[in-house]
Here is the input.
Amino acid sequence: MPAELNALRHDLLAQVRKQGAATDPLVVDALRTVPRHLFLPDLPPEQAYEDEAIVTKRDEDGRPISSSSQPTIMAIMLDQLAARHGQRVLEIGAGTGFNAALLAHIVGEQGRVTSVDLDEDTVERARENLDAAGCPDVVLVTGDGALGHPDNAPYDRIIATVGVWDLAPAWRDQLAPRGRLVVPLDLHGVQRTIAFELDGDHWTSRSARPCGFMRMRGSAAGPERNYRISERVTLNLPHDRDVDPAALAEVLAEVPTIVGTGVSPSIAELFDGLSLWLALREPCWCTLSEAAGDGAPLLRAAPLRAPEAAVTAGILGDDGVALLSRADGELTVLGYGNDTVAGELLAHVHGWDAAGRPGSDGLRVDAYPVGVSGPRGDIVLEKAACRLVLSW
Ligand SMILES: C[S@@+](CC[C@H](N)C(=O)[O-])C[C@H]1O[C@@H](n2cnc3c(N)ncnc32)[C@H](O)[C@@H]1O
Here is the structure.
């Protein structure tokens, strides 16, 4: 392996560790050894070793449907998974095969990795990548990951590298006793990667971290909806609701009322804390993202900004919209149309701030499969196969 590639891999590992990820020595060793550039053969190696998600496939509308995930979030999830030598692991979402190769390195020759992807062409490419990287023993399967892969069960560890809306019953059936499941789980429109273990008849969480994965397709796809509001702006809703995109674009082109909140959170507090607060307490919350491009932006001063897109959150009412914005670090509320939703959004920001700006630290999620009775709890999310009870 040329020295430059080694250096790139070591630099990437250093960046990942700087974010507090790759705390497990087996994860460190895997990231130090497995060559990511062989899983992204169309990219120059320098780009393959950036700490970025790389989209590798899009649907007919241009939406990403496969990628190599950001190395830092991969390391966070592998830390959560705590896979060990000799274990059997099931991965849902083979993608490029890179994570499967990291897992194969961790479990070693005595272990076995099975990875499932919905798309046959993705599996074919992952096979080529894994062979090129010297991992011919990883078992790749084309299929719907919601069904797991019973042929190689039981698994000591199951990990989904695609956003899941529900906990599929097959994962419980195929997990070995004292096994662990790690999934990017939908919590009413936000995701947290959660490490679950079985506690008698239900799942209980061991850790929860913020994340943002593309959503699972197939039989367990969730009810989320997204609408193109303009060429660059997309509206994301956590539930199935009809929206007239042209009417919303017209409303957003109006001059809004602007109200200061007096609250100046960091980006991390916004991403991990306020979005979770809104998701769990506001039935009509939404997010809007605007891709980078030429021309004046439709979203004014969206508080979360990355080079490729700006993102904001708010409330979509029946005859008004309220969105978060930012001026000199302070969060502001932009009200379009009826003022009621702007007042509601302001009250949420103040409620979150007064509660000490909670985020996913200390978040506990218990998941009771359908048919198992459990406590009601303050915050309950009903899924098709389980009921989630959230507490701190
Ligand atoms: C973010 S990518 C996975 C990244 C991958 N682990 C890697 O290291 O490159 C998500 C993958 O999940 C797959 N996927 C989506 N829905 C699925 C389903 N129901 N069952 C299995 N795979 C699914 C997509 O085709 C996509 O390849």
In short: Residues 225-354 form one domain. The mean pLDDT is 95.
